[in-house]
Specification:
The protein is mostly helical and 335 residues long. 53% of the residues lie in helices and 1% in strands. The chain is built from 14 helices and two strands. It has helices spanning 35-57, 61-87, 95-108, 113-125, 140-144, 154-160, 166-169, 172-179, 181-201, 205-227, 248-253, 260-265, 282-292, 304-314; strands at 92-93, 296-297. Helix 2 runs parallel beside helix 10 (205-227) and helix 8 crosses helix 9.
Amino acid sequence: MAPDISSMETVVQEPEQFEKLVAPQAAPRKYKIVYKNLITFGYGHAATIYGFYLLCTTATWSTVIFSYILLALAAIGITAGAHRLWTHRAYKAKMPLQIILMVMNTLAFQNTATDWVRDHRLHHRYSDTDADPHNATRGFFYSHVGWLLVRKHEEVKRRGKFIDMSDIYANPVLRFQRKYAIPFIGTVCFVLPTVIPMYFFGETFNTAWNIAVMRYVFNLHLSFFVNSAAHLWGNKPYDRNIKPAQCLPISFISFGEGFHNYHHVFPWDYRTAELGNNWLNATTLFINFFAKIGWAYDLKTASDDMIKSRAERTGDGTNMWGFGEKRDAPCDRSE
């Protein structure tokens, strides 16, 4: 659990009878499969394979470029919107930017932003325990996608009731998304990405639809890898006692979310990374742009002295970014 998160996210007082969960922790459990999700994910991945084939064989270059743009927009809707803005309140955004981020987040369709924030705040408070929705202590598959194929752990349901969501419920932009979730998400995430290539680029419905599903599934996995790989493999320069790790390949594919050891130590830092190394951090560059035009403001950061002090006190002695010589490979198995 990130030591500073309590200063940024309010938590309702838990009942005294809740036992303390110390990571890594995973008690024996019986999994109850959610067959609807199993079928949906099965179809989505089958359509993704077919969609990738169509992307390589029949799709126009316009559709290829269009699909990548949507992939990037959807990813940043998660990273800059649901994650850094609404979950961690690492910066503030004026209404136009919030609307833009809400639409981009809708394009990603990882449930509503409200659902995403609740799960992620729970994840940080109880990281890598049974109250973590995607507890990485249970292994790669569970933390990557398996947690969505089974019923939630009882600890997730019990303790999730005590995560303060008042700021999210009071947000009119997120209330709109939640109120009109089915028609709005369906239109933004699936209908328009199918209809636009058909109308403007001459694609058949078969090609446009399967490529739209492929893009959606790719977006899911970009986020899933942060939950799985970035909690299992990599260096721990800031806190050697937690599972989240620094993994550069994940940062590259997830638009800057793979500096995960840093992020769990300083979850309120809008950069989720340190020392101005933003070449793998497209989300930070996105936020910086809107800060320049005044739509993003109150950007919270950890000072270089704070970062260095924490690294010297609790880090594993490795270094990726600038306190002397770099000694480790980008993503070695140091667990």
